[in-house]
Design goal:
With 251 residues, the protein is α/β, with parallel strands linked by helices. The chain has one domain: 3-Layer(aba) Sandwich (Undecaprenyl pyrophosphate synthetase), CATH 3.40.1180.10. A 6-stranded parallel β-sheet has the order 3-4-2-1-5-6, with helices on both faces. Helix 5 links the parallel strand 3 and strand 4. Helix 2 crosses helix 3, helix 3 runs parallel beside helix 4 and helix 4 runs parallel beside helix 5. The longest helix has 24 residues. The model has no long low-confidence stretch (mean pLDDT 96). The structure holds farnesyl diphosphate (FPP). The site of farnesyl diphosphate has 20 residues, from helix 2, helix 3, strand 2 and helix 4. Farnesyl diphosphate binds next to helix 2, helix 3, strand 2 and helix 4.
């Protein structure tokens, strides 16, 4: 694995990696266990991937931990996911501090159980001055809902004469997203073989490289992350330009 890590070029790292952690339920089913067993093991992958990102120098990592649609899952599963969130936050604070990692969230945090909100607020406050990696948890998050809110907020400013319609541009929209302080997503990873974006960071992923792997989330560990980053580094990002133009810029 060290070998794999050494192959990663420091000067071609994605700034911002976003991950759809999928396949916990199927992983558990394959082992004849209840779905929540998969989520519990998924937490170990979360820890390894955060650590792996910190080791190679990734600046921003955003994890899709709970979507707005996930509220429709069986009550017990939702309860277990929230309990796992609270216990992981309690356990991981020390590691976040040690590794200089700042925690932030995106999504409708006010819809989470109070316990989770309190725990999140505490870890966010205690890690706010950390600067090596910004770890963002998407919780009760949906991208379309985020965009609807942006439109409402901007419209209100227009109605109140705080903003002219002509002034609305991509930067203004960016500044109204939950992710206003984060750069665009460079690299999106989804585990478990599903090839969808599922309402995750639609605006922010406009130019992201997409990486889909059959590995189920509880099996996705550091080695898998390093392999994915190496593939990212072998791709050519053109942002609408030709290969020749990109070569000239890089010369
Ligand atoms: C998708 O698997 C996973 C989730 C909906 C939740 C992800 C949560 C964790 C890994 C644990 C808690 C998170 C933190 C940040 C401590 P799935 O249930 O959709 O799997 P399936 O598609 O196989 O059913």
């Amino acid at each position: 694995m060290e070998n794999l890590k050494n192959k990663i070029a420091e000067n071609k790292l994605p700034d911002h990696i976003a991950i759809i952690m999928d396949g916990n339920g199927r992983w558990a089913k394959l082992k004849g266990k209840p779905r929540v067993f998969g989520h519990k093991n998924g937490v170990t992958s979360v820890r390894e991937i955060i650590e792996g990102c910190a080791e190679i120098g990734i600046k921003y990592l955003t994890l899709y931990a709970f979507s707005t649609e996930n509220w429709n899952r069986p009550k017990l599963e939702v309860k277990t996911l929230m309990a796992l969130l609270v216990s992981s936050l309690k356990k991981e604070l020390k590691n976040l501090q040690k590794n200089n990692i700042k925690l932030t969230t995106i999504g409708n945090i006010e819809h989470l159980p109070e316990k989770a909100q309190i725990e999140l607020a505490e870890v966010i406050e205690k890690t706010k001055n950390n600067s090596s990696l910004t770890l963002t948890l998407a919780l009760s998050y949906g991208s379309r809902e985020e965009i609807v809110n942006v439109i409402k907020n901007i419209s209100e400013k227009v109605v109140n004469n705080q903003l002219n319609i002509e002034e609305i541009n991509e930067k203004i929209i960016n500044n109204h997203l939950y992710t206003f302080s984060l750069p665009d997503v460079d690299f999106m990873i989804r585990t478990s073989g599903e090839k969808r974006i599922s309402n995750f960071l639609l605006w922010q992923m406009a130019y992201a490289e997409l990486y889909f792997t059959d590995t189920l989330w509880p099996d996705f560990r550091k080695e898998n992350l390093f392999k994915a980053v190496l593939e990212y580094q072998n791709r050519e990002r053109r942002f609408g330009k030709t290969s020749e133009q990109i070569e000239t810029i890089n010369e």
